[in-house]
Amino acid sequence: MASEKQKGLTDKVFSQLQPPLSEATLKVLEDGGFHYCTPVQAATIPLLCSFKDVAVDAATGSGKTLAFVVPLVEILRRLTDPLKSHEVAGIIISPTRELASQIYHVIEPFVSTLPNLRCMLLVGGTDVAADLKKLKEDGVNIIVGTPGRLDDIMERINILDFRRLEVLILDEADRLLDMGFQKQLSSIIIRLPKQRRTGLFSATQTEAVEELSRAGLRNPVRVEVRVEAKSKIRSATMADMACSRTPEGLHIEYLKCEADEKPTQLVHFLSEHKSNKIIVYYMTCASVDYWGIVLPQLEVLKGCPLIALHGRMKQSMREKALQSFTKLSAGFLLCTDVAARGLDIPDVDWIVQYDPPQDPNVFVHRVGRTARMGRSGNALAFLLPKEDAYVEFLRIRKIPLQEKNSSVTTSDIIPQIRAAAKEDRDVMEKGLKAFVSFIRAYKEHHCSYIFRWKELEVGKLAMGCGLLQLPSMPELKRRTLSTDGFVPVEGIDLGAIKYKDKAREKQRQKNLAKKQQTRTHCAEKVERHKVVSNDGGGKKCSRQRRAVQAIEDEEEMERDYHLLKKLKKGVISEREFARATYTEDCLDEDDDGDEHADDDLSLPSTPTDQIHEPSSNLPLQVQTAKENSHQRSKHLSLHKSGRKKQSMSVKTSAIAKIGKHHLKGSCNTYMLKQRKGGSKKRGQSRRRS
After folding, report:
1. Is the model's pTM score more than 0.70?
2. In sequence order, what DSSP letters do the residues of 371-435 get, joined into one string?
3. pLDDT tens string 478-531
4. Residue 655 burial by CB count (10 A; 0-12/13-18/19+): exposed, middle or buried?
């Protein structure tokens, strides 16, 4: 038991806690090398063991996992009635699969000291049918899992009994809410009894966590642990000692450089720290994929262990990557924020943030992967010159940073990256994806007043990604973002770049041939359709007929519209308008019963007075025709087709341009026009008779 106390621990050992811990629990702690309590453990374990609800806000790496695992095991050990196979007494929920898996492995040795109790890990990425089968056959008493899978299990089966639930733990509670698990958490909590102990644990207490605390906790005790560290900020107005949200042994630096210089500075830094264990954080999964295949190809980093980890990888691959990096004594892990919270990876020397996180709260969790449990560690953040306000923002949030000078003697690695893209299509395509994904993720920064998307210099960013040419994306087509600083590679055909993997290249050629064949077939089909349409021999579908008819109606309405304008200006007479719109028979029908007035006008034997008689009464005849057509409009409207109605609507709106006065006249004219066919037929039948 006697061991040297590490920095960051209290003077209190676990055996001195009240209420006292069981011998079995103390034995597991001793075997794991845990003798002295951290501040958060010394404050939280007695509260939970005394059946108090707690809301814990402590710096990352402060030992929060043991702070809820130990009291959970102790509470279950004190149960008087043994639990049945399907009675759940403890639930621990975490936001990520990796963190849930880590908690599961921490709690396993403690659960092994409890007779006839079974603990189970429920996370996504695994076969849910296998989980259901295990639950039905073996049962479970303690569940460690992610909210999505746990809610899914609860929806599928009803064999789990939660009436004897003793403890509910929400680890990284703020992240649970940020990742959009509110619905799942509500669904889970509503199934649980209210008479329980609840613990909320996080390094950052947000407003959402406060709301969850008020909703799910009963009279909680707030536990807040802060680290007293020497202030890194030299200012006469500030005290020498400041309350920091980061561990005491952590030293954070930042480096300002342009986007096209960042890869060179990163490679130079990694080459100088080959003997260290380093985690490099990127903002997107595509960036991790890209740099994960580019960096090992560079001469200065060849032979260095380099592992990629992000949320789009299969669960088995994620677990394998994390285990591989954990076992390394020196190497590089390229990852996204999926590895930013709670993971206890031993002996991490440096945290490098190549891209600042979208959520500023994550900054603390990223750097918290080093300097854990009182140890020392270092962190470096890359910033663009326009992002320097982020430093002051973090200082206000009690995260002190010091500036690091960039290396000016480093050789540019962009030509090497471009050469790799020319030789392998996989490198080129992943570079494009990384570039596009970064631009769109940058737009979603929570600190948009610092990370201003419209001021992002994508030309330099493209050079930093080693792109051969700029991609065709809307942000660049609209010239929303600046492309200054980008120098495209001349005389290169991107379609001719091949995959190094022969199998992938063979499949690509097959796909290209198939696409070409499809295009040729479609072109031939379109050409045949054009020929059939021009010949008029093919049968048109209803949609084609409607389209043709709509065009004809528009042309006819436009012609009538111009005629109405001429009529209004007096360029043509009403009879000329009637002739042009084929409604002259409607006028003659009311002219003393004579339906052949136009024919009589052309006969030389017709007296002069008869020639001018219809003209003198023409306005009256037009008005009479309009009134008659108006009376028949209701009857005609009942028999119009849908096409006629649409034509009427469009025509009315077009004619409305010449004024309200002619709008009514145009409608009446349209109704007169509907009589054209019937009048012509009657005239022809009378001529034949």
Report:
1. no
2. S-TT--EEEEEEE-GGGTHHHHHHHHTT---EE-PPPSSPPP-HHHHHHHHHH-HHHHHHHHHHH
3. 878 889 999 999 989 999 999 999 999 999 999 999 989 888 888 877 776 666
4. buried
